[in-house]
């Protein structure tokens, strides 16, 4: 077995050992087609006030700008589908936020991944990313054979649906490359489009981010939410899972085995009134390692009051 094949085998076996349920590899190239789509999306204003989406455009489309000499882009998927659900009547929180902040969890695992690779292969240049840098993760995932982009904008796999995080490792190591995922298995299904409470899903797999409940409850930092969204949030306090809940492919979702994603009890059990009674000190203590800290205490209260007054 030559070094390229042996290194590829090592990477895929290591990914499995570290708890990733998929590992695919694509050749590091410029994503010119994706660049045009991203530019058109930005020009439509679908990013709303997410100005960071406009930044570092060249870095998003060219992996060699992130890792000089980049040869390969490794896509890793990490399941987060929980075995527990929230108690009936509690304010809805997107399932990805039930446990510890995935940025912290997966970033540490990616650093460990690279550390092991360097110990077994030698000095390689590489960087790991998980939803916090200018990387087009879904594009690389399809190029690595993981799945296809659904009408709801999520990466969907035939084996396990879409309740997973996408992590990316860019390395200057030549590897064997997987075939891109070429087929779209959404067909004529419109369940996600029809179910979206705010009509954020546009034709041709475009998402108007500025209309998405996740945008309003997490990204938008205004002191007040817009009145025209009244009665449209379907009790979602942080994020939204509607388009994933109705997706037929998520009938294949299985509970994760990552201890760090064990749900925080308060997320499963607190009523709206109990959330509103919580002090900022308690919030910071309970959710210091939770994705909810992104909205901060005042953002969570704003969202809750908006729901309460519907």
Automatic annotation (TrEMBL):
Cob(II)alamin binds at residues 60, 131, 152, 155, 166, 214, 240-241. Pathway: tRNA modification; tRNA-queuosine biosynthesis. The keyword Transmembrane helix does not apply. It catalyses: epoxyqueuosine(34) in tRNA + AH2 = queuosine(34) in tRNA + A + H2O. Its EC number is 1.17.99.6. It is an enzyme of class 1 (oxidoreductase). It is found in: Cytoplasm. TRNA binds at residue 221. Residues 177-206 form the 4Fe-4S ferredoxin-type domain. It comes from the Bacteria. Binds 2 [4Fe-4S] clusters per monomer. Monomer. This is Epoxyqueuosine reductase. The lineage of its organism: Bacteria, Pseudomonadati, Bacteroidota, Chitinophagia, Chitinophagales. The gene is queG.
């Amino acid at each position: 077995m030559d070094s390229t094949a042996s290194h590829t085998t090592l990477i895929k076996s290591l990914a499995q050992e570290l708890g990733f349920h998929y590992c695919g590899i694509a050749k590091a190239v410029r994503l010119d087609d994706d660049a045009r789509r991203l530019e058109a999306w930005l020009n439509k204003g679908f990013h709303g006030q997410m100005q960071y989406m406009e930044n570092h455009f060249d870095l998003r489309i060219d992996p060699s700008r992130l890792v000089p000499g980049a040869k390969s882009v490794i896509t890793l998927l990490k399941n987060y589908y929980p075995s527990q659900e929230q108690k009936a009547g509690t304010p809805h929180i997107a399932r990805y936020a039930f446990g510890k902040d995935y940025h912290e969890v997966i970033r540490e695992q990616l650093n460990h991944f690279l550390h092991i690779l360097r110990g077994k292969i030698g000095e390689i240049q590489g960087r790991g990313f998980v939803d916090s840098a200018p990387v087009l993760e879904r594009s690389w995932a399809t190029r690595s054979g993981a799945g296809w982009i659904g009408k709801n904008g999520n990466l969907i796999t035939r084996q396990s649906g879409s309740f997973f995080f996408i992590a990316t490792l860019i390395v200057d190591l030549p590897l064997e490359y997987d075939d891109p995922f070429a087929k779209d298995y959404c067909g004529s299904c419109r369940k996600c489009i029809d179910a979206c409470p705010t009509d954020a899903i546009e034709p041709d797999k475009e998402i108007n981010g500025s209309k998405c409940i996740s945008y309003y409850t997490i990204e938008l930092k205004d002191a007040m939410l817009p009145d025209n969204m009244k009665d449209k949030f379907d009790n979602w306090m942080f994020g939204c899972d509607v388009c994933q809940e109705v997706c037929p492919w998520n009938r294949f979702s299985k509970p994760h085995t990552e201890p760090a994603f064990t749900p925080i009890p308060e997320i499963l059990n607190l009523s709206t009134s109990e959330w509103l009674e919580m002090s900022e000190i308690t919030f910071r203590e309970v959710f210091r390692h939770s994705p909810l800290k992104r909205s901060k205490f005042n953002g969570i209260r704003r969202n809750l009051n908006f729901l309460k007054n519907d």
